[in-house]
């Protein structure tokens, strides 16, 4: 997101939330498009993708720290828990751009609604999932212990799963990963590798 876009969006937010809003916009600006580095077809592409991922992770980490600083009362990272991470994710919803239909909406479960509706805008599950993945990695890279990682808390995992299920039903989109089927030839080779046991001899 360039500086012109950021300044334009910041001007639409009330001055009382300037600090927190700036942090949220920096994170969400590329959360929906930046995930873990894809497998590139060349070494140059690998370096570029890795660099973008690391830069985004660093921005996410810095802006989350700013969010904690602006928290009322201020919150230190050492005292941050899964509950605070959930609070942060719910806070980000106000900047969401994904329409999530309610069960009473006539377009509930439709991927491409034919008309507008008053249903709320939320952060897309994919954006939140990618964001938590980057923050979880950044926490440990900055000296945090894996067992004390608030981004890996069970409550956070359950929340993301709930968001995924709700948005999947509301938007008529399946987020389930398809299981890779083994080629028939590979299955046959594996069956051939299984040693056959000789038949048990009957007692004389």
Question: What does this entry show, briefly?
Answer:
The chain has 204 residues and is mostly helical. 52% of the residues lie in helices and 2% in strands. The chain has a domain at 54-171.
What attributes does this structure have?
mainly alpha, disordered N terminus, two-stranded antiparallel ribbon, 204 residues, globular, 52% helix, single chain
Lateral arrangement of strands in the main beta sheet: 1-2
Strand content: under 5%
Distance between the termini: 83 Å
Number of helices: 7
Largest sheet: 2 strands, antiparallel
Commentary on this structure:
By secondary structure, the protein is an all-alpha fold. The chain has a domain at 54-171. The protein is built from 7 helices and 2 strands, in the order ααααββααα. The protein has helices at residues 3-10, 18-31, 43-70, 82-92, 125-141, 154-171, 184-193, and strands at 98-99, 121-122. It has a two-stranded antiparallel sheet with strand order 1-2. Helix 3 crosses helix 5 (125-141) and helix 5 packs antiparallel against helix 6. It starts with a helix and ends in an 11-residue tail after the last helix.
């Amino acid at each position: 997101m360039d500086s012109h876009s950021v300044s334009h969006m910041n001007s639409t937010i009330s001055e009382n939330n300037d600090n927190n809003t700036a942090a949220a916009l920096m994170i969400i600006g590329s959360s929906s498009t930046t995930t873990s580095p894809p497998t590139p077809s060349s070494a140059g592409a690998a370096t570029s993708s890795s660099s973008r991922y690391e830069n985004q992770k660093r921005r996410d980490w810095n802006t989350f720290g700013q969010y904690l600083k602006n928290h009322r009362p201020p919150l230190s990272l050492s005292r941050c828990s899964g509950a605070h991470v959930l609070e942060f994710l719910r806070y980000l919803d106000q900047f969401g751009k994904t329409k999530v239909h309610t069960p009473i909406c006539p377009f509930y479960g439709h991927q491409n609604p034919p008309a507008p509706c008053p249903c709320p805008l939320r952060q897309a599950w994919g954006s939140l999932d990618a964001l938590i993945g980057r923050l979880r990695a950044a926490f440990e890279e900055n000296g945090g212990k894996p067992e004390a990682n608030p981004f890996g808390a069970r409550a956070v995992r359950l929340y993301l799963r709930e968001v995924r299920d709700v948005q999947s039903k509301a938007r008529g989109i399946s987020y389930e990963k398809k299981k890779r089927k083994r080629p028939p030839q590979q299955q046959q080779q594996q069956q051939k590798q299984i040693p056959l046991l000789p038949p048990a001899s009957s007692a004389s």
